[in-house]
Write a structure and sequence with these properties.
Chain A is mainly β. Helices cover 0% and strands 45% of the residues of chain A. In chain A, the strands form 2 sheets. In chain A, strands 1, 3, 4, 7, 8 and 9 form a 6-stranded mixed β-sheet that branches. In chain A, strands 2-6-5 form a 3-stranded antiparallel β-sheet, with no helix packed on it. In chain A, a hairpin with a 4-residue loop joins β7 and β8. The radius of gyration of chain A is 13 Å and the shape is globular. Chain A starts with 8 loop residues before the first strand and ends with a strand. The relative contact order of chain A is 0.33. Chain B has no helices and 11 strands. In chain B, strands 2, 4, 5, 6, 9, 10 and 11 form a 7-stranded mixed β-sheet that branches. In chain B, strands 1-3-8-7 form a 4-stranded antiparallel β-sheet, with no helix packed on it. The relative contact order of chain B is 0.31. The chains are: A mainly beta, B mainly beta. Chains A and B meet through β3, β4, β7 and β8 of A and β5 and β10 of B.
Chain lengths: 110, 116
């Protein structure tokens, strides 16, 4: 059971937009920054969003992040088949004194 | 941005020990906190441990407290994870990851597999 809650799967057609939610509590997302990672099969995770809505260099602006209260959202526009991957949210948890992750969301681009 | 490369994984009997290493290059290793994150086969990500840039603070996930020890040698740009009293549930790919703002990880190694 993950501390952060994500939907197990989402799907959308190429070119469309999708959002992935990440629900937490006041000790993690509510009081700290959220981050998002993309993991393609057989590879290490890749940072997409940090500090709720910042993109590292090289991450296209098709990827966006937002936070409201104890939830964070990852948005992906202009979906491509190459976006098919597992997506994870993460945040520091002040009560646990550690980083917590969501269980992951599998994105299928139909 | 830099690179991280893990080593030291392998097959070990329950109750045994293993020491993982993570060698950094291309960035000022001694200026950044580094984390260990693991992923069991076909499962999600689990944070394992963190060490501050100067080694002055260490944090552990409850499931490894008292069994795993994180350390670093800034003179050798290397991070370590000493794993003792290993259990079957510790079987996973272990990644080291460099911190960036907001407790996020912007550089990951390729991972090293530990099978117990």
């Amino acid at each position: 059971q993950s501390v952060l809650t994500q939907p197990p799967s989402v799907s959308a057609a190429p070119g469309q937009k999708v959002t992935i939610s990440c629900s937490g509590s006041s000790s993690n997302i509510g009081g700290n920054y959220a981050s998002w990672y993309q993991q393609l099969p057989g590879t290490a995770p890749k940072l997409l969003i940090y500090e709720n809505n910042k993109r590292p260099s090289g991450i296209p602006d098709r990827f966006s992040g937002s936070k409201s209260g104890t939830s964070a959202i990852l948005g992906i526009t202009g979906l491509q088949t190459g976006d098919e991957a597992d997506y994870y949210c993460g945040a520091w948890d002040s009560s646990l004194s550690g980083v917590v992750f969501g269980g992951g969301t599998k994105l299928t681009v139909l | 941005q830099g690179q991280l490369e893990e080593s030291g994984g392998g097959v070990v009997q329950p109750g045994g020990s293993l020491r993982l290493s993570c060698e950094a290059s291309g960035f000022a290793f001694s200026s950044y906190g580094i984390h260990w994150v693991r992923q069991a086969p076909d499962k999600g990500l689990d944070w394992v441990a963190y060490i501050r840039f100067d080694g002055s603070k260490k944090y552990y996930a409850d499931f490894v407290k008292g069994r795993f020890t994180i350390s670093r040698d800034n003179s050798k740009n290397t991070l370590f994870l000493q794993m003792n009293s290993l259990r079957a549930e510790d079987t996973a790919v272990y990644y080291c990851a460099k911190e960036v703002g907001g407790d996020a990880f912007d550089v990951w190694g390729q991972g090293t597999m530990v099978s117990v």
